[in-house]
Write a structure and sequence with these properties.
alpha+beta; two-stranded antiparallel ribbon; 2 helices; elongated; binds zinc ion
């Protein structure tokens, strides 16, 4: 592979992994302490905390359906975060 092609492939891999990276998180409460979240998810919801991928701010959120991967744009620094659903 010549150098130019290698650079293109490398950049493409780097870009896709930036989007798809799993965000590390910690479960703070299972089930969730939010009764509304619990009702909506039929008791599946959990509370998690994670650090903003950019500035490291500690952020808490409720994961309604932890069996399914949750991806959203974090409001803190406008970064995409992704939490991989656990296997049953
Ligand atoms: Zn941030």
């Amino acid at each position: 592979m010549d150098k130019e092609l290698r650079d293109i492939v490398g950049a493409a891999i780097e870009e896709s992994s930036t989007v798809m990276d799993e965000t590390p998180y910690e479960v703070t409460s299972a089930p969730s302490k939010d009764p509304m979240a619990g009702a909506i998810s039929d008791g599946e919801a959990i509370d998690i905390q994670y650090n903003c991928p950019k500035c490291g701010n500690n952020i808490r959120t409720t994961w309604l359906f932890p069996d399914a991967t949750m991806t959203f744009r974090d409001e803190c620094c406008n970064m995409m975060v992704s939490f991989e659903g656990r296997d049953k």
